[in-house]
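Hi W., the FE2/S2 (inorganic) cluster complex you wanted:
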Amino acid sequence: MPEYQENSIIDSIDRLAESFYRLSLRAPRIASAARPGQFVMVSCGPFLDPLLRRPFSIHRCNGSDTLQLLIRVVGRGTELLARCRPGQNLNLIGPLGHGFNPPAAKTPICLIGGGIGIAPLLFWAERLEPPERCTVLLGSRTGEELIQLAAGFRDLGCRVEIATDDGSLGHHGLVTDLLAAHLPATAKAYACGPMPMMAAVAQICRDAKVACEVSLEAHMACGLGACLGCTVHGTGNRYLHVCKNGPVVNAEEVAWQR
Ligand SMILES: Cc1cc2nc3c(=O)[nH]c(=O)nc-3n(C[C@H](O)[C@H](O)[C@H](O)COP(=O)(O)OP(=O)(O)OC[C@H]3O[C@@H](n4cnc5c(N)ncnc54)[C@H](O)[C@@H]3O)c2cc1C
Ligand code: FES
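Structure:
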C-alpha cells in the first residue's frame, strides 16, 4: 500500500466542543490513497518539541485532495494542533496501517464509537453503501461532544443512538449498554474507543455470534513498524504491533484479559 510524506496545508480548523477540534487539510497524495480506518502520523509543529509525530485517524476524506482529522486536546502535541491556523503547513506521513474490512454487500452494520474513537467511523460510514444500513452507537462524557458528530452520521442517513456519562444527551450510561439490542439485526460490528469499551464490545459480539472488528489504540513512536513500541497482547501468545498489524484487527485476535 502506498505511503507518502506530504506537507499538507490547513484549509480550516473548527472547534466542535470544549476540547474537540476538526482540522481540514489539503494533502492530495494521502487523500487519494486513504482507506477508512487508516491513520496519519502528524508533525505537530515546526520545532523539535514535541520531537515525535502523533498518530491520528483519518476522520473524513474526499478521495482526491482533502482529509479531515478530529483532534481531542490531551497534551502538548494536540494543544499545538488546536492552535494552528488556516494556511499553515502540517507535515504528514500516511496513509498508514490496516483499515476496516468490508462487510458482505447490503448486510446491516453496527458502528460503535467511544469518545475520540468516533473519529475513523465517519469516514467508514461514508464509504459503506448504502449508509442507511448502518446503526451508529456513540458514547462520550457529555452531549456537547457528540452533537455535531452525530449530525455527520445522520446526514448520511445512518440511524444514531447516543449514550453519555453525565446523562446530558441520550441514554445515561455506557454506549455498550445500547449494543445488545441491535445485534439480532446486525451482520458485523466495528468499534473504536477506549480499550475497556472495545473489550466489552468484543465480549457482547462474541456472545451474540456477530463478527466484530476493532481499531486498537496504543502509544506510537514511529507508526512505521520500526520501534515496536505499540505492542498489544494478541491471542495464541502473539504480539500485535498496532501500527502494522492494525490499527484495525478482528476482535478475536486480541487477548482482552491481559
Ligand atoms: C491509531 C491511532 C489513532 C488515533 N486517532 C486519534 C484521533 O483521531 N484523534 C485524537 O485526538 N487522538 C487520536 N489518537 C490518540 C492521539 O495520538 C494522542 O492523543 C496524541 O498522540 C496525544 O499527543 P499529545 O502530545 O497531545 O499528548 P501527550 O503529552 O503525548 O499525552 C497526554 C496524555 O494522553 C495519553 N496518550 C497519548 N497518546 C495516547 C494513545 N495513543 N492512546 C492513549 N492515550 C494516549 C498519554 O498517556 C497522556 O496521559 C490516536 C492514536 C492512535 C494510536
Ligand atoms: S509505533 Fe513504532 S512499531 Fe508501531
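The chain has a mean pLDDT of 94.

W.
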